[in-house]
Amino acid sequence: MSASSARPFLVDPFHVTDRERNDAALEAFFLFCTAVAGKKSTVITDKAARLLEGIPHAGTPLERLAFAEAGGEWRRICAASPRGSMAC
């Protein structure tokens, strides 16, 4: 995960071997790995980080996704994203 505190969920696609990841960093890396298959890693890392940053809930990446699912945030997120930029 990037050392930047401005984008805490941004995975560095050029340095994926990081044995010092905390739980939140591991969750972000898991989501990145799931989404990146067959796609350009530099694009997906930014999109995954923007998705997580767009969920108005504090917590780990998986907690944010659970909040979005339970609270109906997916509709707002999909409506705000350009067509095709996220799998909605």
Short description:
This protein is mainly α.
Q: What does this protein structure show overall?
A:
By secondary structure, the protein is mostly helical. The protein is about 50% helix and about 0% strand. The protein has one domain. It is built from four helices and no strands. Helix 1 packs across helix 2. The radius of gyration is 13 Å and the shape is globular.
Number of domains: 1
Q: How far is the first residue's CA from the last residue's CA?
A: 25 Å
Taking all Cα atoms into account, the compactness measure Rg is 13 Å
Q: Mean pLDDT score, rounded?
A: 84
Order of helices and strands: HHHH
Blueprint (SSEs and pairs):
Elements: H1 23-36, H2 41-53, H3 61-71, H4 73-80
Helix pairs in contact: 1-2
Labels describing this entry:
4 helices; mainly alpha; 88 residues; single chain
